[in-house]
Amino acid sequence: MRLRTRAGLGAVTTGIAIVLLASTASAAPAPGAAGAGDPYYPYAGNGGYDVAHYDIRLTYQPATDQLAGTTTILARTTQELSSFDLDFGLHVSGIRVDNMPAAFRAVREGELEVTPAKPLAKNQPVTVVVTYADTPSKVVIDGYTAWKKTPDGALAVDEPQNSQWWYPASDHPTDKATYDVSVEVPDDVAALSNGTLVRKTKQRAGWTRWNWRSTQPQNTYATTLEVGKFEVNQATTPGGQPFVTAYDPATGDSLGAAKASVERTPEIVEFLANQFGEYPFEAQGGVVSTGLTFALEAQTRPVYSNKFFVAGTNTSVVAHENAHQWFGDSVSLGRWSDIWLNEGFASYAEYLWSEHQGEGTAAELAQYVYDSYPADDPFWQVLPGDPGAANQFDDAVYDRGALAVQALRTAVGDDAFFTILRTWVARHRGDDARISDFVALAEEVSGKPLQQLFHTWLFTAGKPATGPNGAATLRAAAQPRSYPAIQRTHQLLAAGDSR
After folding, report:
1. pLDDT-above-70 percentage for the chain
2. Sign of CA dihedral 394, 398, 403, 408
3. Does the pLDDT at position 113 exceed 60?
4. d(CA 211, CA 189)
5. Is residue 231 predicted with pLDDT exceeding 50?
6. What is the distance in angstroms between the CA of the first residue and the CA of the last residue of the chain?
7. What is the mean pLDDT of the chain?
8. Are 256 and 286 in contact (CB under 8 A)?
């Protein structure tokens, strides 16, 4: 993830007056909160409403990096609102709320305050239409831009935020919605997004409109747009789902390795479904681009840098990003401090895939990682369960995070372990949850007290005295065959500062 802390912005406050108002029979309309209450990113997301659907209809000209269009937001109020916020950084020309023009103003970088013509009642549907046009690559929020201009297009791919550069939103994983994304581009480029390609239409000479639909709840950072001269392939998985892949021709000599990796996605998804339960979405695929240096778990269609395939095929990164379809996309984190729920399990999925391929068992890989870091290494000072915004995507969140998963497997046994995983993704499908919820479920399923195990592996600085396989003196006999590829993948993820 592009590490973009919002230091100095302060925390979202909760006043005593709000508690007093809640106890009265009727409260006066009030502004919605400026954020979802996440300590890492205080202004991410918004209060006072829940989004149900985004309809994003855009035109993009790669030659000038001009993006223009409208986004229609269907939401429901959760309080009486005198005003509400949207997370957005582009130039807005008009906003309508329930078909009436609304006042709006930028209250800080990437944040709009919208004041409807009349207050909004609680628990009512609301339709918000935002019209805008801008040059996204020139828009800087907190010293950073997530919009990546490429020679033949652009990429809206990043984490924890990327929506502010192409559509207004409540930008936090706890406010998920369904999507229609319709983007008109010149005929010689493709416009890729999430879900199913519903249709391609031509409404004027020289331009094609690509229409995508995501029917399952989707968080904002997992929503992406890739425009460029991609080679686009459409097929069907053995299970009958649309399978769309796209490759940047500039990938060059590593194009074959990229295809040999990403085209195996349905096989890898099938394997992961046997571990985690039914695949939660309606489509599969992947996009490989030279325009970024990391990989991201875009829902139904992960996006990979070409760098992952320079050394040859890399199915490890494909397993990692597709594991996120369960851990991160379908079940989203409740706070960004819960990042272990995403990265620890996606990294452990690489271990499971290695074991399936006969290139080293999960136990061998976990032990090898444990043995590779001496007790005085800074690696052991990062807490995967609450690493802080500055260390949110540190190597330890991935590697020590995976060791914590193996330690759980050791403690409860395989039957209980895989029951925990499948129950977790089934119980919270399409929603969000927190580490404390996972710990409670693990204890519920296993019947074992596990608080100390999670405290040691996730929340305590220092190398645990006992390894992930339960023996302090156990040493890995040899480097597992898959270890170099897994480490190379994690190093590229860390170097790109984004996942």
Report:
1. 92
2. positive
3. yes
4. 14
5. yes
6. 4
7. 93
8. no
Token pair recorded at residue 121? 């009642």
CA distance 107 to 114: 10
- Single pTM value for the model: 0.94
Number of CB atoms found within 10 A of residue 178's CB: 17
What is the DSSP secondary-structure string of 325-346? TTBTTTEEESSGGGTHHHHHHH
* Pair of tokens at residue 220: 């904002």
Burial grade of 478 (CB within 10 A; 0-12, 13-18, 19 or more): exposed
For residue 90, what are the CA distances in angstroms to 124, 186, 199, 358? 28, 22, 27, 49
Give alpha helix (H) positions in 358-450: 362-372, 395-412, 414-427, 435-446
Token duo for residue 331: 């079940």
d(CA 460, CA 58): 47
Cβ 333 vs Cβ 424: under 8 Å: no
pLDDT value at residue 472: 59
pLDDT digits (tens, 9 = 90+) for 161-170: 999 999 999 9
User: Tell me: the pLDDT tens digits for 384-406?
Assistant: 999 999 999 999 999 999 999 99
Q: What is the DSSP string of 221-273?
A: GG--EEEES-EEEEEE-TTS-EEEEEE-GGGGGGHHHHHHHHTTHHHHHHHHH
C-alpha 63: how far from chain center: 29
Q: Which of 474, 471, 455, 300 is nearest to 386 (CA)?
A: 455
Which residues have CB under 8 Å from 423's CB, separation 6+? 441, 445
Q: Tens of pLDDT along 7-28?
A: 333 333 333 333 333 333 457 9
Distance CA 177, CA 220 (A): 8
Average pLDDT of 327-353?
Answer: 98
Region of residue 195 (phi > 0: left; psi between -120 and 50: alpha; otherwise: beta): left
